[in-house]
Amino acid sequence: MQRFTLPRDMYHGKGSLEALKTLKGKKAIICVGGGSMKRFGFLDRAKAYLEEAGMEVALFEGIESDPSVETVMKGAQAMLDFGPDWIVAIGGGSPIDAAKAMWIKYEYPECTFEDMCKVFGIPELRRKAHFCAVSSTSGTATEVTAFSIITDYAKGIKYPIADFEITPDVAIVDPELAETMPKKLVAHTGMDALTHAVEAYVSTANSDFTDPLAIHAIEMIQKTLVASYNGDMDARHAMHTAQCLAGQAFSNALLGIVHSMAHKTGAIFADYGAHIIHGAANAMYLPKVIAFNAKDPTAKKRYGVIADYMHLGGKNDEEKVALLIQFCRDMNDKLNIPHGIKFYGADSYPTEQGFVPEEVFLERLPEIAKNAIGDACTGSNPRQPSQEEMEKLLKCCYYDTEVDF
Ligand SMILES: NC(=O)c1ccc[n+]([C@@H]2O[C@H](COP(=O)([O-])OP(=O)(O)OC[C@H]3O[C@@H](n4cnc5c(N)ncnc54)[C@H](O)[C@@H]3O)[C@@H](O)[C@H]2O)c1
Ligand SMILES: [Zn+2]
Asked: Can you list the residues of the chain whose pLDDT is less than 50?
């Protein structure tokens, strides 16, 4: 038996933020990030719509990028103090993910962060509040997914919380919110979305329910991501839809080791002054993982199908896989994303010598590989890597060398 779960209502298209007026309740808490939603007027509009719906509104502001366990605990306390029956999270993946984890703690104050991280182990929510997510970036699709990614900074590790209990009740996918994204954010979140769709399509948990969503997302991303990056607003709108379709696919088909590796490398070099941004990590690792997974005959065939839908050419699956890998690498070039960690600058742009020194990478490699194998996304990857293979793969991701094993 498989399960397919999505938000009950998904409002989409320009102006759909107004759907906040339709929520029924007494008290809503709006969870937001560091200021972009306020600056561009979306926070005020959201607050006004909720007040129009007759709700008392409180704000929890300042949720940082790659939110921490501490922020989750603080937000949960604010919820316990205010007692909302709606949690409205607005912004990128970070504030929405943080709000999802706060929601768990709000409903079950005794639940620890460790408890939350038990995959598909969240107790029944919605005893206190329902959840509405409004996305302002075009990548994570957390507005429709059963996931929340929280960083434990003491360990330097990102933990995915995974359970259909945290799939939002209402998703609002208003492309107007995505118009203000800076170029770099468009690039990173867009490649995150492409990775979601590709990993979902070759995941061992794929199904006829998720395949059409993944394939259509890939086709749309191929047509619109670069144009969106270069400022075409019709393309920007299409990308906002495409990433949501990819999210609907992966929330139900799960992901693979591109994400396992991104989760375990993202914050681990923070002591050297930067993060490897989630979408950029995915963009660098995706071509390597395609080469690794293509040794599995089913995955190879499925990559071939993706290449066919993209009209990449190729006479056989071997050639199609190579063309798909080349497509991903070309995307990185067009979006100013490096091809390996060694070349990843502290500002995320390609450079001769990035911020992660070689000796530091090699020293931490066994631990990173072990953690990546243990990540919740590894189980649905089409090929299960050994410790040795994961270390080799990560080395290819560092040096940008070919994966031939
Ligand atoms: N829950 C999931 O299913 C899932 C999937 C993939 C990634 N993630 C997680 O999501 C987080 C990344 O989220 P993200 O990529 O959406 O970025 P983000 O939420 O971290 O935001 C990045 C920056 O962009 C700004 N910003 C957001 N929207 C903007 C807009 N419309 N205009 C201008 N500025 C804007 C924010 O203020 C912030 O400074 C990571 O922690 C990642 O691990 C979650
Ligand atoms: Zn992702």
From this structure: none
Domain range list for the chain: 9-177, 188-399
**C-beta 144 within 6 A of ligand 1:** no
Q: At what angle do helices 257-265 and 183-202 cross, to 10 degrees?
A: 140
Q: What is the pLDDT of residue 159?
A: 86
In 181-256, alpha helices (H): 183-202, 211-229, 233-253
The pLDDT assigned to 142 comes to 97
Q: Ligand 1: which of 94, 189, 233, 240 to mutate, judged by most atoms within 8 Å of the beta carbon?
A: 94
Query: In this structure, which ligand is nearest to the CA of 283?
Result: 2
Ligand 1 nearest-atom number relative to CA 263: 43
Q: For residues 79 and 248, give the distance between their C-alpha atoms in angstroms, rounded to a whole number.
A: 28
Are residues 261 and 376 in contact, defined by beta-carbon separation less than 8 angstroms? no
CB within 8 Å of 54: residues ≥ 6 apart: 26
pTM for the model stands at 0.96
Rounded Cα distance between 202 and 25, Å, is: 41
Nearest CA residue ID for atom 23, ligand 1: 65
The pLDDT tens digits of the residues spanning 266-284 come to 989 999 999 999 999 999 9
Q: What is the CATH number of domain 188-399?
A: 1.20.1090.10
**Chain-centre distance for alpha carbon 159:** 12
Residue pLDDT, tens place only, 106-163: 999 999 999 999 888 999 999 999 999 999 999 999 999 999 999 998 887 878 899 9
**Residue carrying structure tokens 């059963």:** 146
What class has domain 9-177? alpha beta
pLDDT value at residue 314: 98
Q: Is 282 in the pocket of ligand 1 (CB under 6 A)?
A: no
